[in-house]
Amino acid sequence: MDKSKRYDRGIRVWGAHGQEALEAARVCLLNAGPTGTEALKNLVLGGIHSFTIVDGAKVTPADLGNNFLLTADALAGSRAQCATECLKELNESVAGSYVEEAPRSLMNSNPDFFRQFTLVIATQLSETDATNLDVICRQHGVRLLLLRSYGLVGYLRPSMPEHRVIESKPDSKVDDLRLANPWPELAAYVESLDLATAEDHVHSHIPYAVLLAQAAKQWQQEHGGALPSSTPERAAFKELLKSWQRNIDGIPLEEENFTEAVSNAHKVWAPPSVPSELRAILADPAADTITAKSPDYWVLVAALKRFIEQEGQGQLPLEGSIPDMHASTQQYLELQRVYRARADADAAAVEAHARSLLEAAGRDPNSISTSDVKHFCKHARYLRLVRWRSLAEETEASSCRGEALRSALAAEDTADNAALYVLLRAADRFYETYQRYPGAYDSEVAEDAALLKSQANALLAECGAAGAVVSDDLVGEVCRCAAGELHVVAAVVGAIAAQEAIKLITCQYTPVGGTLIYNAMASTTSVFAF
């Protein structure tokens, strides 16, 4: 089957270039339990290049009960091999392999093994093993995604020094039309359309952007260059627009373009500014010190910063797109060409700055293509940057964010999920102490609950959150599940993980910026940056 048809749904979401990134991705999965295989299943169906499963376990009756990929004839066989063979059947274009070895053993014996992968998805690891893997992946520049299903609790945590996003694709976008301060070519086009002499059909099909630009010019001429600022002035501006409508015997005709102009009048006095997220990126030290090793992203951010300070006079490069408008095809296309020409000129200016920066850093000035610069400028308003603390920083007593943890435990909407975060960590400490998870034996659940609560309180004290409360009901729930990996929870965590993995691989959309806790008891999620 043709790839464009096979991956049609994905291409509609992340585009052909996103699909190319996905098809080049090499993914490593640690532990082939239900959480990991659910996540990997979705990536295999999405068309990754290849995957490797690392798992030293044999298939047990428990696996048959919670992992739909494993069948009875796989009992006592290699879990890594069985899962690999089943996953390969889902997409013949994806290569699959396996390593029959415990992840901890492989991390200790061959840490360079992980260098070959685009993304490592590590499931059901203890805090100690996850922290060690985080160090390895950061050393090799490999993206890491940690997953865990623990009874009715799910855990997801990306980890890498920084993740740079050009196509964040926000739910809503602003239109940058420059109506109050048009550049010469736009001003000339606006003036070329004479409302007074236009025929009725032409008059009713002049794009609303032109109407607003003409109204803005007239208003500024009559008000000393100022734009409407108060509510009465803005109402008067809209009345000015309405007064231009054609009428019969004093009754205004229905002209949709004027209706659009009135409803979009705010675009004259409230043009889009540089978003706070972008201002933070422009102010980042990485944009001030460009070296031969600087990623292209930071070179272009530095070039963008120069453009804003110089040619842009405080404004971003024009995106070049215009919204849908009630207009004749000819006039809409003419207006669109005016905006695209300006966008191309702005991108060329950014490109010139980028070439200068590259040359100064000792890199080939042409190492960033013109198409990449245009792509960057088109999405410049929505650039995003995510940085994650290392797991060691998050978990060590000297660097953990105790005050943030205390606040989350005290807030009504996050208290339970923050407590579950604490209890997952406490359960790992319990295991290190007793070589079993709390609740492993029915006869000791009550005793284990007291021990787990003690571990949780000790952890809170180490983090500087002593006195914060963890619900006894949640302690009992964590003991009751005995670290069971339920498929109903694994399926949800795996689906979220696949979504986050695609964000990390394609560098589109903004990934979770901290630790995500899924509470299946309350059907809620929370993201914490501890």
From TrEMBL:
Q: Is Cytoplasm among this UniProt entry's keywords?
A: no
Please list the residue ranges annotated as the THIF-type NAD/FAD binding fold domain.
7-523
Entry keyword annotation includes Iron: no
**GO terms for molecular function, please?**
NEDD8 activating enzyme activity
Q: In which pathway does it act?
A: Protein modification; protein neddylation
- Provide a GO CC annotation, any one: cytoplasm
Q: Name one GO biological process term.
A: protein neddylation
Which Gene3D superfamilies does the entry link to? NAD(P)-binding Rossmann-like Domain
Pfam families from the entry? ThiF
Q: Read off the InterPro entries from this record.
A: APP-BP1 (IPR030667), ThiF/MoeB/HesA (IPR045886), ThiF_NAD_FAD-bd (IPR000594), Ubiquitin-activating_enz (IPR035985)
User: What does the UniProt keyword field contain?
Assistant: Ubl conjugation pathway
Describe the task this protein carries out: Regulatory subunit of the dimeric E1 enzyme. E1 activates RUB1/NEDD8 by first adenylating its C-terminal glycine residue with ATP, thereafter linking this residue to the side chain of the catalytic cysteine, yielding a RUB1-ECR1 thioester and free AMP. E1 finally transfers RUB1 to the catalytic cysteine of RCE1.
Q: Which family does it belong to?
A: Belongs to the ubiquitin-activating E1 family. ULA1 subfamily.
Q: What is this protein called?
A: NEDD8-activating enzyme E1 regulatory subunit
Q: Origin organism of this chain?
A: Chlorella ohadii
Question: What lineage does UniProt assign to this protein's organism?
Answer: Eukaryota, Viridiplantae, Chlorophyta, core chlorophytes, Trebouxiophyceae
